[in-house]
Design goal:
- By secondary structure, this protein is α/β, with parallel strands linked by helices.
- The chain has two domains: 321 residues, Alpha-Beta Barrel (TIM Barrel), CATH 3.20.20.80; 70 residues, Immunoglobulin-like, CATH 2.60.40.
- It has nine helices and 15 strands.
- The strands form four sheets. The chain has a five-stranded antiparallel sheet, with helices on one face.
- A hairpin with a 2-residue loop joins β5 and β6.
Length: 404
């Protein structure tokens, strides 16, 4: 977890949420004893205290099943066996008792990470899942629901104000072929797990597809995949009577196979647009993955030496313009081919549009006097009567309330 100057850099970017693997159950309780023996010394308690002191909201991830509790022997990322559920409940209650109050103040608890990853398809202690069961009609989702039914009341009994998230769902593609990730979510709901988490956590990534192009063929529509994936999730939740369940995108980024200048700049474009879309879709929060991440598709906000990347400034601009803003609807009054989202800023109640050219072709927009425009990095754009829009999002601020 970031410290000192590194944390200052993160806060300067507008970072206010941290999703952090706080509890490795297999390391904290490696042996089954009675009474239980918990090795809290392996937890980054100093980091948790610093986050609380700085006013950062921590989403505490709980991962990794001890050997003695594994339903699938040898799989630390896999399911918990039924007769170890009481031990899991006791562990969670002890953890919440320790970390919910001062000086840690942890309120959000996430149970796993991408549990819809297939068992046996990833390494035994993978950060993916891995509760996915290819031989099960619901890909293991119902088994995960039974775990939720034990974990959720255990956490709530210790801290009624705690908010519980399911492990962020991979949901790699909506349907077709041998893919069964969506069946896992349906299995959670079919197994009665919908009442045993407060916020549905999911992940949404896009891929770099070439010059000025990004998207995910599995989730057509927006290049960010956000509207399509959120619509899919909400439709499935509604079918099981949970249509009002809050959603949180706990991993979001544009993936780069190679860290080319073009792809790194498109990451900044993706951040600007995806955060505006997350706001318009009413998500509780969206978490960029990750702060530093050069070992997996180069999605970090900064390099390992803390050198900032283009996406850092796009994230900073999005936080500056959108934090606390209210969504009003699609941006209106622009010429054909221009698309965007309209907000009211929290700071001064100004009208804010996030707009771009739908097809990436340059389009000229005439703006009223006094209108300000900023690029997706937050840099002012000089306006001489008109603004030229491309596929890159632009922040248009109109203090007098007039339309373009």
């Amino acid at each position: 977890m970031a410290r000192g100057n590194e944390l200052d850099l993160a806060l300067d970017a507008g970072l206010r949420w941290v999703r952090y693997r706080v509890l490795d159950w297999d390391r904290i309780e490696p042996q089954h004893t009675d009474p239980p023996t918990y090795h809290w010394e392996v937890v980054d308690e100093a980091g948790l205290q610093e986050m609380a002191r700085r006013g950062i909201t921590v989403i505490a991830q709980v991962q990794f099943t001890p050997e003695w509790a594994q339903a699938a022997p040898g799989s630390f990322c896999g399911p918990v066996k039924d007769d170890a559920f009481p031990d899991l409940a006791r562990f969670l209650q002890a953890a919440v008792a320790r970390y919910s109050g001062a000086p840690y103040h942890v309120r959000y608890w996430e149970l796993g990470n991408e549990p819809d990853a297939g068992l046996g398809l990833v390494p035994p202690r993978s950060v993916f899942g891995c509760w996915g069961d290819p031989g099960d009609e619901y890909y293991g989702g119902r088994a995960y629901a039974q775990m939720l039914k034990v974990a959720y009341p255990a956490i709530k009994a210790q801290d009624p104000s705690a908010l519980v998230l399911n492990g962020g769902l991979l949901l790699d593609r909506p349907s077709g072929g041998n893919d069964t990730h969506p069946r896992f979510l349906e299995g959670i709901l079919e197994g009665g797990g919908g009442d045993y988490f407060d916020i549905l956590s999911f992940h949404a990534y896009s891929h770099y597809l070439g010059p000025r192009q990004m998207g995910n063929p599995s989730w057509p529509g927006s290049p960010t995949v956000m509207p399509a994936k959120v619509a899919f999730i909400r439709d499935l939740l509604a079918r099981y009577g949970h249509g009002d369940k809050p959603l949180m995108n706990t991993e979001s980024a544009l993936q780069c196979g190679e860290p080319t200048a073009e792809c790194l700049d498109m990451q900044a474009v993706h951040a600007a647009r995806s955060y505006a879309e997350a706001m318009s879709l009413g998500l509780v929060a969206q978490i960029h993955y990750a702060w530093i991440n050069e070992h997996w598709r180069h999605t970090g906000l900064v390099m390992t030496d803390l050198k900032t990347k283009p996406v850092y400034y796009a994230y900073q601009a999005a936080a500056s313009f959108l934090a606390g803003a209210s969504y009003r609807g699609p941006a209106a009054g622009y010429p054909a081919g221009v698309q965007g989202l309209a907000f009211i800023t929290a700071a001064g109640g100004e009208l804010l549009d996030v707009v771009w050219s739908r097809d990436g072709q340059a389009r000229e927009v005439e703006l009223p006097e006094g209108t300000l425009a900023y690029d997706h990095h937050g840099k002012p754009i000089p306006i001489d009567g008109a603004l030229v829009l491309t596929g890159d999002p632009v922040y248009v601020v109109r203090g007098d309330g007039t339309a373009p």
